Amino acid sequence: MLNPGFPLLLAALLGLILKARKIRYFLTAGALIISLILMFALPQDKILTTASFFDLELILNYISLTSRNIGLIFGLFALLVLVYGYSLLSLASLNLLNIFVGSSIAILFVGDYISFFFFWELISVAAFFLIYDKVEEKLRYTAEYYIIIHVLGGLSLLFGILLNYNFTGEIILAPPEAGLLFFIFGIAIKLGFLGFHVWIPKTYAAIPFQLAVLMAAYTSKVGVYALYRIVELETNIVAYFGLLNALGGILLAIFHSHLRIIISYSIISQIGYMIVGIGLSSQIAVTGGLFHLINHILYKGLLFMMAGTICYSTGFENLSDLGNLWKKTPLTFLAGIIATLSIAGFPFFNGYLSKALIKAGIDSQLLYYGLQLAGVGTSLLFIKVLYFAFLSKNNDPDIVKIPPLSMKLGMVLISAFMMLTAWNPAAVERLFQISPDVAYFSSSSILSGVLPFITALLLFPLLKKYISPHPEKVFQRDFFSKLGYSFINLDKKISQIHSGDLIRYLSWSLLALLVLLLIFLLAG
Amino acid sequence: MHLPILLILIPLFTVFSLGLFAFFSKKYIIPLVFTSSLASTAIIFYFIFNRETRLPFSYNLGSWQPDLAINILVDHYTLVIFAAMGLMILLSVIYSLTEITRNKAKFYLLLNVLFVGIAGMVMTADLFNFYVFFEITSISSYALVAYNDKDISLEAAFKYLMLGTVSAVFLLLAIILTYMATGTLNMVLIPERLGNLPVLTRQILIAFYLIGLGVKFAIVPLHTWLPDAYVGVPITYNVLSSALIIKTQFFVLMRILYILFGLNFLQDNMITTILLVWGIFSMLFGHAAAFQQNNLKRLLGYSTIAQMGYVIIAFSLGTPAGIVAGSFHMVNHGIMKGAVFFAAGNLHKAAGSYQLNKMQGLADIMPKTSLIFVLLLLSMVGIPPLSGFASKWLILEAALEAGYLLPGFMIILGSFLSLGYYLSIIINIYTGEKDLSKKSSARAVGLKINEILPAAALTAVCIILGLYPAILTGLIDRAPEFLLEQLNYINIIIGG
Amino acid sequence: MKKINFDKVFSFILVSLLGLFIMKVLYSVAGEEAARFTADHYISYGVDETGAINIITAILFDYRAFDTLGEATVIFTAASVVALLLPRHEASMLKTEFTPVVQQSIAFILPFLWIISIFLISYGHLSPGGGFSGGVIISAMSILIIFTYGYRYMTRRFNVKKLSLIEDIGALAFLTIGLAGIIAGGTFLANSQVGIYPGPPGELLSGGLMPLSNFAVAAKVGTGLSVIFLSLARED
Where in chain A are the domains? Predict the structure, then answer.
């Protein structure tokens, strides 16, 4: 039986021959639909396909409830992106999209570490080529940065896998018994943990916005999924790290004014929420974390679509260049409002249910108030975005290009879908097959959901002047690239000892002999 | 059964008769060379396919009794190099058909001398006979490095000659000392007699063997000839050097160390530890130096040095898993690097230069070759499902199994470093001009079938091996028996 | 003051240290009671087993004939390489004119040299000499001719191409002799062990195929070295 990700990968192979854009477009759409059908049709919790690598058994198809749910949203969102990007996605990027989304879906349904690692790396490679651009030097640099940091994470994961394999003799995808640190390091890079998060804003702010919409939904979420599958600790320490991420992401985001940088940093913060949910031991919180992942893909997708549409129609992406757009682009404004209320966890909007679930599962006061604080920050952040992009009268950019119908349709569809899930907790419980005793719409829950947003709304006028937009550059050398450059400089000095002088070379080989003999003489 | 000796005699016959054929008509050269390499390949595949029934196989020359004669033997460890030879001999000849335009007869003469040398080195069980074949290989290597007759290749050949000769002196010294101490050159008789020598003397012998052969398999800091030599030579030599010559020299060193001195001696007296540390150093240094190169061939040369580091690490673990992993990587790296060089040669046809900055924009001109190139480079980094990943997996597994965590970590670090410079190649090839009117100097060229075939075939092998690595491990999994167990080796020829 | 080349100073120190070291090592090895298995066997049974009185030739062309084949290949390759790589210029250095006295006496000497070389080759298995030494004398003849009568005189009769041809034939002959061992039912290069006429030791016709091997190697070495010299002499 085919792993649900494989139809897309096969489509990518087929795409090598089919060079017409329209055909590739519908090929991808068809493959996505097949993959969605497969997720539903295939039996759960059974090993369906195996392969072998040396004498190890690879489990290529194993559908569990969680992976199916995440897979569903992955597939669905890809379809929505296809709609949104109908006129934007290029011929090459369509095929790479197949591989990227295909491996992101496939990784959810594998049951052993080797195939897991394989798709883990394939995502990075596909993303590299998605970002890559032959002409634009900045994109080349971004792609290079992206793949270097992700392969670093991947290699760390590989080392962890090997340590675990060496310890247990098993490669089944289960919480490891050895080398946990390397697993965590690899996952931390993938999900953009604070400190390893640099690639997120760097990438998503630099690439074409239609790709940002697409890519933002997958890479870090695969990391979250890996965290869910692999890291299993007895304490709740992971949850506290998650809180750190949730708060840190907001702090980083709040002073920026480039639209997509803000949204990117808020990904980091939202991933913090998911980590909190997954890191807790209660089943409700874990489900809440995973459900938050699904919601997050939706509203973050909508936010990126909004940012993309603004960029498309005005040509600007920095809040300091924007303003007063609400009349000119009412639909985008509406999308922005829905997305903001969703990400803020406002009752009857998309993020509310998952946040309520997480909060229901929290057993410590610190985490609860920490998350509420992060909620205030998030609300503040996006009130800022809405205010400066749509309402403020500082600037008045013109509409350069009218967004095509497909972009609008994409936004409408995703908003509709979000509202649909937001009103229907029963469907969610069916999806996850849980029946938590959580009163979603009790007055205390609603109050807890409304409170952060109201607080932020009240705080915003006071803080406005501190966080007002300013021009900024997307490309800045961060810690990692400085480290890289200093390595290259050091390396240059090392390789300069090759002077081409034969006498020097000869004396090196004699020196090697002398050292060898000395070692033997002195140690013996 | 005279098959193993035929493996030496067929190319030798070609060497001697090439001049004769060329004297009458030049048009016989190619058919002759082709037939002989086809025959050699057939023999190799005969051994590979009939390995269970025919191996181990020994052959004593001159019908002398085995302890007196020069013996040549084929065992399961030999199959490691045989696997590489089976692919490379024919493909390199095919590729060279159009690459070599002047002095064809001489080129194929040297090429066949090289094949003689390699086949002899791999199979011989006599130390001095090994030295003779070592010299044959070396001389033809020097000549092939100088073959293009350009300043750069002549200088490189001179450096190679000097370094190679100095090292050969130590090798010869080691062989003479061994003979002095044991009174025989037969590799199956030496182990027993060598065991009586003082430890220090044996260690010193090992040091001489190491330096003597180390120059040839380019362990840092004895690697200095290699990057220079790689720049100005025909692609065919690049391929053969990376895939066969270097590997053969290391192969023989391992046989000398493990058979003559024995695993226990090596482990008790730090030799394996020294080799392990040295291998790590060599690997990291190779990667670090490759970072700074802007000539593609030079870069690939340093990368070969680094990749040999992995092989050295794997072999010095001294466990069966380590030997299998190292052998796997030897063959696999040969396949990958061979394909990379073939593809690089094709790219060169369009770019006219191996300087990376002059190779910009090639992806538009040669999309297929560029794609192959990218695949191969990713394989070298160890991205699954290409064969490079299988190598890394085996080596890492072997290292961790033997309890060497830090070396394992260093291998990971090395892979990470290698990504950096392979990326720079990919980025250079996949860089286009913003302004379409400003065409780069590269021009489209039609590739002939014999230029496409080797790269494509090896890439296919690389992908297949990545998906089914058991094909290759099935071939070499008995190699440790004949390397780590002295008795098994000795019994092939005497006793048993 | 001239700048000191540190590389050179460094390598000087290195080489001296290494020299001292290796000397010490050699002393320690020489102290060992060397086993003399192979050498003893050659001395005790060499004549009986091979039929050649000259044990060196017996070793070169019977016990270790395979090494000889390899060494011949080395010379062959070297000759080819030299002919390939050296620049193609006509000789200008070797224009020294000798007096007729010299030319006449050399002309007188040459036949003797020829006879000596043939003797050394054909009696190689009986007395000191053999294919290698005979071949070297043949090449000495060509050197003498080039020096005395000039490069052009030599190349009119024997150019590199022709010499290489003879070399090829010599080498092929050696291979064929090796194959004779297979035909006789033994292995490659089998000679006395498969009973190819060991003869009574001391006779000219003895030692099986050894005399033939001597001739083959002599042809190869003589012409090979001549080719190397001819190629070198072309340099100006």
Answer: 1-166+198-209, 233-475
